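Q: Can I see a sequence and its folded structure?
A: Here is a first one.
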Amino acid sequence: MQRRWILNASAGALLAGAVGAPVAAWAQVQDVNDAINKAGRQRMLSQRMAKAWLMLAHQADANPARQALAQSIKLFERQLAELKAYAPQADIRTTYTELEAAWSAYKTVLTTAQPSKDAASSLLQADAKVLALAHQGTVQYEAASGKPVGHLVNVAGRQRMLSQRMAKFCLAAMLQVDAATSTTEIDKARKEFLSANELLRTAPQATDRIRQELQLADGQWVFFDAALQRMQTGANTFRQVSEVFVTSENLLASMDRVTGMYAALAA
């Protein structure tokens, strides 16, 4: 039972590496697969920041939530600059210019609005705009790749986003913020997540290591999905809220490893 409470050690280490690495380690985009990976990570970060903010609105596990929020903001801004600078086409540069403007508005909500039920609707509207543009950029980079592996990097990266999106909507529903919409979005994301994992598992490019990591992700999914199923609007407890946060972080770590493995294949 404790496994649902504690961030998996390897997951914590990976997340620390992803969002807390020295700037030099993330100084530039290496190739088009790396661009798709980082562009897709921007989608995930948009949802992870909202999740952390909503965690603070619940007044539960404040330190992990604050750390996740601060780290995610730093990584989002660093990758935004990298992806705009690397953009090989004018339309991609335009997308990231638009994303900069949307991000500015979203960051204002994240850093100035007191996390609360009253401010949650504004947060969800702002994160939706950032997510849409981050997704647009990812799709554009996939098109620039023009290779099947580029699509798989995009799909794997989107799994990271879905893990955070489901957690975000679960925490919103627990605050009784448009609970009906949240429930619908969680169900939709759940189906998309399971379908995409099967695609990643059966893809011709999947290596034994990728399939092994996907099997580990399946185990993390069991705990995360169980936490989602226990969602009760207006009747949340510290335990329920914490389980959603922790299990989503562990699933995110597994899917980040899978994405990295696909991105490491020949571009």
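Q: Show me another, different protein.
A: A second, unrelated one:
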Amino acid sequence: MNILVWHVHGSWLTSLVQGPYDFLVPVTPDRGPNGLGRARTWQWPPTVREVSPEELREAPVDLMVLQRPHELALARRWTGRRPGVDVPAVYVEHNSPHESAVDTRHPLADRTDIPLVHVTHFNRLMWDNGRAPTEVIEHGIIDPGPLWTGEEPRAAVVVNDPVRRGRTTGTDLLPAFARTVPLEVFGMRTGGLADHLGLSPGRCRSHDLPQGELHPAMARCRLYLHPVRWTSLGLSLLEAMFLGMPVVALDTTEVREAVPEEAGVVSNRFDVLEDAVRRFLVDPVHARLTGEAARAAAQARYSERRFLDDWERLIKEVTP
């Protein structure tokens, strides 16, 4: 089976391409947003093949996995086939509705021929899905192993574009947390974050690391801090749990479902979050035990095998 899928979210796609199929990933000369091609910082199997828009015209495609509204027209233009009509298709919605959980209608809400796949139950509930048939396939993480050492009394934060995304990702909360714990902020375009927040370099260090270096660097931190107000369930949060890191997180979106009580502290009260951070800093044994519980919880719910089994079931349902 040949599955057409654009390289949009590298971490998520890295799990999907471990499945027993051939994946056609569009590539363009500029490797822009519609043609990134194969990943350069993740390990993808040889079953992932780069195809140009011209090659897609003749390529056999058994399923289209769409992830952005404009891909509906793009797929038809590049392949000459209509998603959901000429070729089975599913649409993966990675995000929570940004404008309003009450009034945001999904772009596929008026279609019944393309199943809408949400990555969390929270997202399915918040979007107005209209007539679209909906599924939830929760994230699956390739287990990086129990790498946590907690040797550095610092909190790891993972966020891309923290300055641009601001309150959405809780960037404005970082100075208050930095009064309690020095921060290690990992992600793309994090350079200059300390200056932007008015923090000294020692209280907020930024790193843009390749995937192979990210997990060991995170795991040296005592705890994982997730100050996100309103995004979908972050893969970095689940990866931190797989590493064996204790979690301190805002009680927003799907976090409460992902982080059971024994795996960390989830709250919208800043004093509760501060107290949790302090305890993990002064009590490494407590941090280790909490991290072990976090890893067990993540393995039980967000395993790569469960994710691939869920996708295999859906693929069999939507393809002849």
